[in-house]
Amino acid sequence: MSQKTKALPEAFAARMQQQLGQEFPAFSQALAGTPPTSIRYNPFKKARPDEALQQVQWCEHAVYLPERPDFYKDPLIFAGAYYVQEASSMFIDQILRNILSLQKPLKILDLCAAPGGKSTLIASAMPEGSLLVSNEIVSKRALPLAENIMRWGNEQVLVSNNNPQDFEVLREYFDLVLVDAPCSGEGMFRKDPKVANLWNEGLPIACAQRQSQILESVDILLKPGGHLIYSTCTFAREENEAQVLDLVENKGYHSKKIPIETDWQIAEVKEQTSTGEATFAYRFYPHTTKGEGFFAACLQKEGEFIGKEGLKLPKKLAKAGVDFKALPKKYYADMEQWVSTETPLAYVIEEEQVIALPKENFYDIKSLNKALRIRQKGVLLGKLKNNKFIPDHALAMSRLLHPKIPRLQLNYEQAVNYLKKQEIEAESQVKGWAIATYNDVSLGWCKVLPNRINNYYPTELRIRKDFEV
């Protein structure tokens, strides 16, 4: 056995030996190996994977890489052209494409969303006109979540920082809730050995209690007939199948069977409740599937939604807070030079900041802004300062960016220097504001002057690591 395999907690190894039987040696050996690397491409941006790369079979836009590169050296990752995501967790894409009508707009909540992998996946798959609330319970994790959502560039996403109980005022509002639950993390032992060091025998039970509390809140805000996707990155039954059985036996949910192919080698766990109703769940083991440990199940809440579409807050909450302030109409013509007019938008102004919100969900967003701690909404277009508009980096990352804005094409060395917020030298016929691009993908703003190019890449996002280009 390797040193890594010996480091497995004894109680965990004993339980998995009992759970897997003859497969345990292969499981243990897999945990001692190197994790595969997979990425998922952004369908809203131009970069596409090499067709020779192996496809992640259960996710439309995802591929495996032959080895893990230094991602910080690739300008495209800073442009939101792709997301580095563990392959097993991309099974959410397979669930979405099989349970939902992806024709009508949906109201979706990703309750435990940081750092943003599953939210960016949902944002890529959901129908136009949908609204995704990407929530993170832990405040310090909400900032990287907001950054990843901003880079992905979909204006139909809000980022919030709330506890599950805070959502209970949004009674029967969501068509779909994803709970990627805080868990004991056993499926990450190979990827992050520190997780194994923090594990103890009582951790799965403690996590299961927390998961049950979260699911109690979810039941209140999910519409009758709505779908719940429940996932973890652990192998513990009390955190996985036991939660599914409780929802079906005691909470009025029905388990959904998800089509899978035999060669994917995903373990479908079929069980029965005390009343004989079938439940289905899907387990990913590192010795059989090309990914880390993962569990997922999909359930549908009993009943049919009869109420009116749209969000209605309790009167006390509806009167609280400050309403959005509309951008004065005199600035609309200016906005049309910066923003694509294909998407119907509402413009609001907060202090000097101009924000574009999807018009179709404007009133719901206004209510959500009162009900939740919203950290990011729509797309921050820029600032109005002394009646002059200064574009924001979020607009450069967004699919709302006007296609006729001038582009300044950069080579690799220039792109890296730009992302380090250093001076860039490039020949250009462009004058004034322009988008710095690499491989036709937007990196951010620059301003081309007669004798220099001003770099407007955000200081807080710059590449800090030093490396040779």
Features:
single chain, 469 residues, alpha+beta, Rossmann fold, Nuclear Transport Factor 2, Chain: A, Archaeosine Trna-guanine Transglycosylase, Chain: A, domain 4, 3 domains, ten-stranded mixed beta sheet, four-stranded antiparallel beta sheet, globular, disordered N terminus
What does this structure look like?
This protein has three domains: 3-301, Vaccinia Virus protein VP39 (Rossmann fold, 3-Layer(aba) Sandwich); 315-397, Nuclear Transport Factor 2, Chain: A (Roll), CATH 3.10.450; 407-461, Archaeosine Trna-guanine Transglycosylase, Chain: A, domain 4. 27% of the residues lie in helices and 25% in strands. It is built from 15 helices and 21 strands. The strands form four sheets. Strands 4, 5, 6, 7, 8, 9, 10, 11, 12 and 15 form a ten-stranded mixed β-sheet that branches. A four-stranded antiparallel β-sheet has the order 13-14-16-17. A four-stranded mixed β-sheet has the order 18-19-20-21. Helix 5 (91-99) runs parallel beside helix 6 (117-125). The chain is globular and about 75 Å long. It starts with a helix and ends in a 14-residue tail after the last strand.
Describe the SSE topology:
Blueprint: H1 3-6, H2 10-20, H3 24-31, E1 37-41, E2 62-65, H4 75-78, E3 82-84, H5 91-99, E4 107-110, H6 117-125, E5 131-135, H7 139-152, E6 157-160, E7 174-180, H8 193-198, H9 203-221, E8 222-232, H10 241-250, E9 253-255, E10 267-272, E11 278-284, E12 294-301, H11 315-318, H12 332-338, E13 345-350, E14 353-358, H13 362-371, E15 374-377, E16 379-385, E17 388-391, H14 393-397, E18 407-409, H15 412-419, E19 432-438, E20 441-448, E21 453-455
Parallel strand pairs: 4-5, 4-7, 5-6, 7-8, 18-19
Antiparallel strand pairs: 1-2, 1-3, 6-15, 8-12, 9-12, 10-11, 11-12, 13-14, 14-16, 16-17, 19-20, 20-21
Helix pairs in contact: 2-3, 5-6
